[in-house]
Amino acid sequence: MNKLSRGLIGLLGFLVVWEAFSRSGFVPQKYFPPPSTVLLRLGELLTQADFLLELVATVLAWAIALGISIAIAVPAGLLLGSVRQVRTASRVIIEFLRPVPSVALIPLALVAVGSGPETKIALAVYAAVWPILFNTIYALDEIDPVMVETARSFGFSRVRTMFTVALPHSAPFVLTGIRLSAAVALILVVSTEYLAGGGVGLGNFALNASTGAGRMDLVLAGTVVAGLIGYLINEILEQVHKRGLRWSAVDREAA
């Protein structure tokens, strides 16, 4: 039995348990509709232009946030990982900022940035930077010193050593960080849309569905869409990891 078959069996089992629990009467179906109802609503939503615009808005904000995170975190990680003096000088501020929950910064972001898409993008960037940054730093910590010394013995400059030795060694770790950050960025985008309101996106759709007519079937349908997006993103990045970094010694299955 391959990985796909096991995954489908697990998904089917989950849906059966969900359906049985929802129809058991422990919780009114109005508040916890069965998957048969949710999937029916999902099919209807995917044919509606307004919902597709919400979906596109969320995915676009996620993609922008992840791209900015990569552009910030990879160079910063290479700098902090290769120049110990800079890493030591910045350690206190990094360890102070890293544990701060991004959701707790929503009020500050609304005041500083406004209620537009910039808010969810900024918060998603703040949350998504850390996994990439620390994976990059860790990769440089784990590099074999013999590789660096060999490159230098051939007259390679620090910059050339970075691009020919450090970056190829770091690539699997960086991509693992990107996979983690992709999920974090999606969570922050949808959460900010839901908590901050305004604008468009899956979170805003769920907010309107829950506070208007209390349509939990629509809320769960939107949630399922967000979960499917996260799953597809992770699968794509995992395939990139497997096919693009076949030479990597990193255990991709464990990642």
Automatic annotation (TrEMBL):
<feature type="transmembrane region" description="Helical">
    <location>
        <begin position="92"/>
        <end position="115"/>
    </location>
</feature>
<keyword id="KW-0813">Transport</keyword>
<dbReference type="InterPro" id="IPR000515">
    <property type="entry name" value="MetI-like"/>
</dbReference>
<dbReference type="Pfam" id="PF00528">
    <property type="entry name" value="BPD_transp_1"/>
</dbReference>
<dbReference type="InterPro" id="IPR035906">
    <property type="entry name" value="MetI-like_sf"/>
</dbReference>
<feature type="transmembrane region" description="Helical">
    <location>
        <begin position="218"/>
        <end position="237"/>
    </location>
</feature>
<feature type="transmembrane region" description="Helical">
    <location>
        <begin position="121"/>
        <end position="140"/>
    </location>
</feature>
<keyword id="KW-1003">Cell membrane</keyword>
<protein>
    <submittedName>
        <fullName>ABC transporter permease</fullName>
    </submittedName>
</protein>
<keyword id="KW-0812">Transmembrane</keyword>
<feature type="transmembrane region" description="Helical">
    <location>
        <begin position="55"/>
        <end position="80"/>
    </location>
</feature>
<comment type="similarity">
    <text>Belongs to the binding-protein-dependent transport system permease family.</text>
</comment>
<keyword id="KW-1133">Transmembrane helix</keyword>
<keyword id="KW-0472">Membrane</keyword>
<feature type="domain" description="ABC transmembrane type-1">
    <location>
        <begin position="55"/>
        <end position="237"/>
    </location>
</feature>
